[in-house]
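Project standup — Tuesday

K.O.: blocked on the structure for the chain from last sprint. Re-posting the sequence here as requested.
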Amino acid sequence: MKSYKVGIVGLGWVAGAHLRTFAALPYYEPVAVMSRRKLDPEEIRREYGVNVTVYNDYDRFLAHKGLEIVDICTPHPFHPDATVKAANAGKHLIVEKPLSLTFEDSKRMLEAVKKNKVKTSVGFWIRLMSVTKAMKSIIDKGLIGDIYYAECDYFHGIGPWYGQFEWNIKKDMGGSSLLTAGCHSLDIMLYLLSEPVEEVFSYSTKNPNPVYAPYEYDTTSITLLKFVKKGLLGKVASVTDCMQPYVFNMNVIGSDGSIDNERFYSKKIDGLLDWSTLDVMRVDSGDVARHSYNEQFLHFAECLDTGKEAINSLEAAYETHRVIFAADRSAETGKPVRISEFS
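H.V.: unblocked you, prediction finished:
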């Protein structure tokens, strides 16, 4: 594979993990950083081992000689404009989740990417983890039969001890429990089942502990999903205000067996008396230093080399966000919402 020149927009906590990953991979060459702050390139070199040009003007950043990929790691509301402008400049894109806080912004991001025919990778890196690959393979091979129910849940206390707390508490910055973090659980359900959603119904609430009082929106939601496929249902819990260690749950139930994270059982395999344990890496931390950016960026480099779309492309993420926006509307109105309302 060739080496791609990449520039990072917004050098914060997540971007730092991205930059370390790029520096460790032979397929990327970090060349530029865009920031509102006056950063010292020498300090960046000492901390990350890379030589970059620092910009405070986005147009000049996009014009950096040889720049091929723009990696957008800004807070959520700034993703849309940065994405559209980079796509219009012909740059391939890595965009952190969520895509945006509104359906309209997600739609114009997709339109810009398709119009300019640039390749994309969205921060749904869980699609590329070994536990997900194993679960997807078991499902696709029919080893648990006809799937009729699934639940994927996100439990993570995003309080003052977490890097993004200061700005994430605001409604116009964090958006909702699903948008700011629980989107990972909803996205992985849609990826594993590979079936379109017809309708959702969602409730939301909030931890009464005073530590979460600064949040301007409900930090826990539970969403029921009715799929187009007859008889297929799902449940997604997004709990970003819990007082417990991090838990990411993936459970898929079929007519002949089940997969519960790293545990697997199937009536189609003779001799199984109990759960079998898969030798896989689970999703076990909300710390960005332990996210699978290595797998995400390797996959994207391969896609750029071959011209294929990434399994976590912006177009795929757009479909996940349609369901999220429907779920958030349902929580606000107390009524079921059809996904066709977001098209």
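K.O.: great, moving the ticket to review. The longest strand covers residues 147-155. The chain has a mean pLDDT of 96.
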